[in-house]
Amino acid sequence: MAALARQFAAYIGVSLAALGVHYGLLATLVEVGRADPVRAALAGYLAGAVVSYGLNRRLTYASARPHAEATWRFGIVAAIGFGLTWLIMAGLTRGLGLPYLAAQVMATGVVVFWNFLGHRMWTFAARPVPALPEEASGLR
After folding, report:
1. pTM (2 decimals)?
2. Per the record, what is one GO cellular component (predicted)?
């Protein structure tokens, strides 16, 4: 349990860096560029994902999974998080009229747990070691 807590703490540290990029781009696009908050949130999510991949691979999960495997897995987990962000942001800003930053905080609260678990259990998980056939192992 302590190892999981340490890993989650590392994930939160990496997430703060990625969120800085995400929220910075979101606010810039909305406040300066007058962009739609939902689209700006999605652009921020993508920019934060780039930061997240590199730092999580190295610092949080210390993964030896080859990039050729980890990147497409990361992309699938991130795409689901992207969809969750879109649903939550659209529902809260367009549907309920909440301010975009409040909606983004709520979306982040949901997506951070999805991403942590998806990456821990699938993207960066250790590759399974194939079992030896009965003949090779000497067992029958």
Report:
1. 0.81
2. plasma membrane
